[in-house]
Amino acid sequence: MSDTTRRSPVRKLILPAIATAIVFAILCSLGMWQVRRLHWKEALIAQVDRRLKETPIAAPGPGQWKTLDLAEADYTPVTVSGEFLHDDEAHLYSSLMEPRGPVGGVGWFVFTPLRTDEGWIVYVNRGFVPVEKEIASTRPEGLTTGRVTVTGLMRRPETPGRFQASAKPTSQQWFARQPDKFAARSGLPVESVAPYTIDADATPNPGGLPQGGETTVTFSNNHLQYVVTWFGLALALVGVFIAYARGVLKRRD
């Protein structure tokens, strides 16, 4: 038997070995990426847990907006005083399955612009209302008048998902918190509206609605299972290649 004939089965392993090495490297890189994401998510959760225990600070005004890191400031406890503009409510669709208060299910979060003592405006998520209480006139007791002080959590704006429903052009029904678009729809001066919103705390509103204090501060953290998945696939790939290589070498013998 010639050397070429003896080597031919081994040569059959060259391309599969290269392909296996490439895919193995890709799977491992995905696994390492998920490890980094896991560390980032754990740090974020710890940061938010610490932040929720901090003393509220004054809500940032226009002089701070340009330099404000909205992602970093998310969930910061703040306080602000002013007067609600109830005629310009915006309603954010929600399915509140685990409410802290007595009202839950399908409904809306009520975002009401607050004209602050300084004159600028910030949208306040006053809380949740059921579907039948979306319109402000159905809950007149909760339409607080005069100067109020709101304490809550600063929240960054959201970008609607690709497959998310769009806001209705003739209403104030929304599916992502977008204070600039809320303001534009109501005809408020966008340049005077804060780039963030505030989720009001659980201080009861007259009549019980809107139901505040319903901010979700839990984070999904599935990165560990993704780490196991990607590295598990990498190991499985190696096992498949080893089994294949053994079969090729046995046929050579």
Automatic annotation (TrEMBL):
It is found in: Cell membrane; Membrane. One of its GO terms (cellular component) is plasma membrane. Pfam families: SURF1 (PF02104). It is a multi-pass membrane protein. It comes from the Bacteria. The keyword Transmembrane helix applies. Its main location: membrane. The chain crosses the membrane at residues 12-33, 224-245. Keywords: Cell membrane, Membrane, Transmembrane, Transmembrane helix. Belongs to the SURF1 family. This is SURF1-like protein.
